[in-house]
TrEMBL record:
Organism in which the protein naturally occurs: Coregonus suidteri
Myosin motor domain mapped to chain residues: 146-287
Binding site for ATP: 239-246
Record's subcellular location: Cytoplasm
Family assignment from sequence similarity: Belongs to the TRAFAC class myosin-kinesin ATPase superfamily. Myosin family.
Alphabetical UniProt keywords: Actin-binding, ATP-binding, Coiled coil, Cytoplasm, Motor protein, Myosin, Nucleotide-binding
InterPro entries xref list: Kinesin_motor_dom_sf (IPR036961), Myo9 (IPR046987), Myosin_head_motor_dom-like (IPR001609), P-loop_NTPase (IPR027417), RA_dom (IPR000159), Ubiquitin-like_domsf (IPR029071)
Domain of life: Eukaryota
One GO CC term on file: cytoplasm
Name of the protein this chain belongs to: Uncharacterized protein
Length: 287
């Protein structure tokens, strides 16, 4: 609705008519909006009547007018004696002057059942999509992702959603994904430039989950937990043959030795890695 000095429409006592835009939420074949010129003292009942006429709706059916306000996304159903223009005059100035549905302040026309409840219709997919986007923007729905770096955040948790998520991430060269504090790694079978000293530094002393999942984050958490609690830590690596257990072990040792400041200089990393094939290191206990 935009507030204008009255030309046309029913003038109010102060001589002004107000443009009131009403968006029907009825069926897909209904017009998307109608603009009415109404006086300040027009009631919701009369606006509903005019809107039904303008939209060519069945006058035998019952309708309600609801005010939608962006803040919180509430829909306030108006009583038949309520004055829609009064509501608009309380909106922010910009919304008073211009309020396309996309801006958040508008009126909805919905069908009402005989018992007073609102008759919800099957909404067109596009409309639902827009609503979902708005709710996500307000924080009522999780932001729309096609990949989640922690499986615990998947909106639907089942085998196919897990595999889809891992696949999507893998195609974006994100081979690591968390499931809580567990790290899932998918073998890329090719070199990825995510293991250089810059990454060791980046993940150093960071809470798990703050950054993109990475094997260095696991090494870092174990290392600092050992220092803080002065208790041995272990990292269990499991997977089928060829899945990358040995490679992951090497990355962990690389990161741990780098963190302990001994890595490059003392040859500790080389010594441990050299013992790997003999010990088949899968589980580390650091004192
Ligand atoms: N993160 C990675 N980046 C690049 N290549 C990797 C990665 N992880 C594994 N690979 C490659 O995949 C191959 C198999 O990995 P690896 O030997 O670690 O598997 P494994 O689980 O230890 O196998 P097995 O249980 O049979 O010993 C290796 O050639 C390795 O280089």
């Amino acid at each position: 609705m935009s507030v204008k000095d009255g030309e046309g429409g029913a003038p109010s006592q102060d001589g002004r008519a107000y443009d009131l835009q009403v968006y029907p939420r009825l069926s897909a074949d209904c017009p998307s909006c109608c603009t009415l010129k109404v006086p300040k003292e027009a009631t919701a009942a009369s606006v509903i009547q005019d809107a039904a006429l303008a939209l060519g709706l069945d006058p035998q059916r019952l309708y309600v007018l609801a005010e939608v306000k962006e803040c919180g996304g509430e829909e306030w159903v108006l009583e038949s004696g309520d004055l829609p223009v009064q509501r608009v005059l309380l909106w922010p100035r910009k919304a008073q002057e211009q309020h396309p549905q996309s801006e958040g302040f508008y009126f909805l026309l919905q069908e009402r059942n005989r018992d007073g409840t609102i008759h919800y219709v099957h909404l067109p997919a596009l409309w639902k999509e827009q609503e979902a986007q708005k709710l996500a923007a307000r924080g009522f729905l999780p932001p729309r992702h096609d990949d989640f770096d922690d499986l615990c955040n998947l909106p639907a948790l089942n085998e196919s959603s897990i595999l889809d998520n891992l696949r999507n991430r893998f195609h974006k060269k994100k081979i690591y994904t968390y499931a809580g504090s567990i790290l899932i790694a998918i073998n890329p079978f090719k070199f990825l430039s995510i293991y250089n000293p810059k990454y060791v530094k980046m993940y150093e002393n960071h809470q798990l989950g703050k950054l993109e999942p990475h094997i260095f984050a696991i090494a870092d958490v174990a290392y600092y937990a050992m220092l803080r609690k002065r208790v041995n830590q272990c990292i269990v690596i499991s997977g089928e043959s060829g899945s990358g257990k040995t490679q992951s072990t090497n990355f962990l040792i690389h990161c741990l030795t780098a963190l302990s400041q001994k890595g490059y200089a003392s040859g500790v990393e080389r010594t441990i890695l050299g013992a790997g094939p003999v010990l088949e290191v899968r589980l580390f206990v650091f004192v």
